[in-house]
Amino acid sequence: MNIHEYQAKAVLAEFGAPIAKGVAVFSVKEAEAAANELGGPVWVVKSQIHAGGRGKGRFTEDAAGEAGGVRLSRSVAEVVANAQQMLGNTLVTHQTSPAGRPVNRLYIEEGSAIARELYLSCLVDRENGRVAFIVSQEGGMNIEDVAAETPEKIVTVHVDPAAGYTSHIGRSIAYALGLEGGQIKQCDRLIAALYRAFTEKDMSLLEINPLVVTESGDLLCLDAKINFDDNALFRHPDIDELRDPGEDDPKEVEAEENDLSYVALDGDIGCMVNGAGLAMATMDIIKLYGAEPANFLDVGGGASKERVAIAFKIITADPNVKGILVNIFGGIMRCDVVADGIIAAVKDVGLEVPLVVRLEGTNVEEGKKIIAESGMNVISADDLDDAAQKIVAAVGGGVQ
Ligand code: GDP
Ligand code: MN
């Protein structure tokens, strides 16, 4: 799960990381009040969306022309004007889709005088099974470009889980970042705080780009992006509350509310499958025959007719879906329940694309009979191979 920058900064501040003063706002009026409260003389008006690259982003309706999604403002009037242009507007960045993301929240922050922009992130290095800090003196810009062009400017420091954080780690990072004097002690404290935040809150990614050295020589987290491990969210109701449903794919939200594992993908064949292993095998075989799956949807082991119907509706709601493959192995799940669910959903929302159904296992005969007698235009398949070939042919794709 992702959260907004202002929320990430509040989480980091709880652990003692240095951030600038700021106020999250939802309206122009609140933006004006926040600007007055912060007092200036310089403010930064920051669009809050779950994507980076805001500074260099562009609004789809931009009265101000070239200014991006992060704007320095030198008067309350300028804060108000920027808030007016940003709120309700759509921001397109290199990390959003070309359609962009709606901006419904802003963070009004006191402006900082920047001497240096550094890069810092923390993640779980799966190869080593350790938390790693990745830092670079080339902050504020695209770290992907730095990695591609000057990889030697990126330094990785691992934390031994048995020893935990030690000052040695903070000092190594300070050295890599070219910090000096009192900044070294500040870096030590910062990294200790970030490591504690990362592990205690079950983060999977923490990125501070830029981490800045201010003109007065202090470290400050100027941006913050956090991704939490969804599987650990049950331990963090405070984090779960920070969810912004406006940022989530509505189909994924509906699936989650109904205990369905659903991930939207880029292809055009919608898949309804039970069991993650079978779902992966189904995606593989669709690709084998030259097409691409539109989603990963696992209805689980013992889904009810209602849940099958919801799953089917979620798939048909995706405009990219040109055909649907239902591939169910009835173990605990009964094939007749699946058939009933599909028919209920089709009655409700209709069926405008080809549907291939492959059922096997418990009550398979009843299931096939229900579908055959439903009058629906269904292509039935004998096995997974047959099913995949039939759906790929039905959408007119694939290799011969
Ligand atoms: P991102 O583009 O989504 O990563 O948004 P950031 O929060 O990183 O802001 C983009 C850029 O705006 C930063 O790299 C800074 O150069 C600049 N910026 C952000 N806050 C301030 C500030 O308080 N003062 C100044 N001078 N620049 C800022
Ligand atoms: Mn940034």
UniProtKB/TrEMBL annotation:
<dbReference type="GO" id="GO:0006104">
    <property type="term" value="P:succinyl-CoA metabolic process"/>
</dbReference>
<feature type="binding site">
    <location>
        <position position="46"/>
    </location>
    <ligand>
        <name>ATP</name>
    </ligand>
</feature>
<feature type="binding site">
    <location>
        <position position="117"/>
    </location>
    <ligand>
        <name>ATP</name>
    </ligand>
</feature>
<dbReference type="InterPro" id="IPR016102">
    <property type="entry name" value="Succinyl-CoA_synth-like"/>
</dbReference>
<dbReference type="Pfam" id="PF08442">
    <property type="entry name" value="ATP-grasp_2"/>
</dbReference>
<keyword id="KW-0067">ATP-binding</keyword>
<dbReference type="GO" id="GO:0004776">
    <property type="term" value="F:succinate-CoA ligase (GDP-forming) activity"/>
</dbReference>
<feature type="binding site">
    <location>
        <position position="112"/>
    </location>
    <ligand>
        <name>ATP</name>
    </ligand>
</feature>
<comment type="similarity">
    <text>Belongs to the succinate/malate CoA ligase beta subunit family.</text>
</comment>
<comment type="pathway">
    <text>Carbohydrate metabolism; tricarboxylic acid cycle; succinate from succinyl-CoA (ligase route): step 1/1.</text>
</comment>
<comment type="function">
    <text>Succinyl-CoA synthetase functions in the citric acid cycle (TCA), coupling the hydrolysis of succinyl-CoA to the synthesis of either ATP or GTP and thus represents the only step of substrate-level phosphorylation in the TCA. The beta subunit provides nucleotide specificity of the enzyme and binds the substrate succinate, while the binding sites for coenzyme A and phosphate are found in the alpha subunit.</text>
</comment>
<feature type="binding site">
    <location>
        <begin position="53"/>
        <end position="55"/>
    </location>
    <ligand>
        <name>ATP</name>
    </ligand>
</feature>
<feature type="domain" description="ATP-grasp">
    <location>
        <begin position="9"/>
        <end position="237"/>
    </location>
</feature>
<dbReference type="GO" id="GO:0000287">
    <property type="term" value="F:magnesium ion binding"/>
</dbReference>
<keyword id="KW-0436">Ligase</keyword>
<keyword id="KW-0816">Tricarboxylic acid cycle</keyword>
<protein>
    <recommendedName>
        <fullName>Succinate--CoA ligase [ADP-forming] subunit beta</fullName>
        <ecNumber>6.2.1.5</ecNumber>
    </recommendedName>
</protein>
<comment type="subunit">
    <text>Heterotetramer of two alpha and two beta subunits.</text>
</comment>
<feature type="binding site">
    <location>
        <position position="274"/>
    </location>
    <ligand>
        <name>substrate</name>
    </ligand>
</feature>
<dbReference type="GO" id="GO:0042709">
    <property type="term" value="C:succinate-CoA ligase complex"/>
</dbReference>
<comment type="pathway">
    <text>One-carbon metabolism; formaldehyde assimilation via serine pathway.</text>
</comment>
<dbReference type="GO" id="GO:0005829">
    <property type="term" value="C:cytosol"/>
</dbReference>
<dbReference type="InterPro" id="IPR017866">
    <property type="entry name" value="Succ-CoA_synthase_bsu_CS"/>
</dbReference>
<feature type="binding site">
    <location>
        <position position="109"/>
    </location>
    <ligand>
        <name>ATP</name>
    </ligand>
</feature>
<dbReference type="InterPro" id="IPR013815">
    <property type="entry name" value="ATP_grasp_subdomain_1"/>
</dbReference>
<keyword id="KW-0547">Nucleotide-binding</keyword>
<dbReference type="GO" id="GO:0006099">
    <property type="term" value="P:tricarboxylic acid cycle"/>
</dbReference>
<feature type="binding site">
    <location>
        <begin position="331"/>
        <end position="333"/>
    </location>
    <ligand>
        <name>substrate</name>
    </ligand>
</feature>
<dbReference type="GO" id="GO:0005524">
    <property type="term" value="F:ATP binding"/>
</dbReference>
<dbReference type="GO" id="GO:0050074">
    <property type="term" value="F:malate-CoA ligase activity"/>
</dbReference>
<keyword id="KW-0460">Magnesium</keyword>
<dbReference type="InterPro" id="IPR011761">
    <property type="entry name" value="ATP-grasp"/>
</dbReference>
<feature type="binding site">
    <location>
        <position position="223"/>
    </location>
    <ligand>
        <name>Mg(2+)</name>
    </ligand>
</feature>
<dbReference type="InterPro" id="IPR005811">
    <property type="entry name" value="SUCC_ACL_C"/>
</dbReference>
<keyword id="KW-0479">Metal-binding</keyword>
<dbReference type="Pfam" id="PF00549">
    <property type="entry name" value="Ligase_CoA"/>
</dbReference>
<dbReference type="InterPro" id="IPR013650">
    <property type="entry name" value="ATP-grasp_succ-CoA_synth-type"/>
</dbReference>
<dbReference type="GO" id="GO:0004775">
    <property type="term" value="F:succinate-CoA ligase (ADP-forming) activity"/>
</dbReference>
<feature type="binding site">
    <location>
        <position position="209"/>
    </location>
    <ligand>
        <name>Mg(2+)</name>
    </ligand>
</feature>
<dbReference type="InterPro" id="IPR005809">
    <property type="entry name" value="Succ_CoA_ligase-like_bsu"/>
</dbReference>
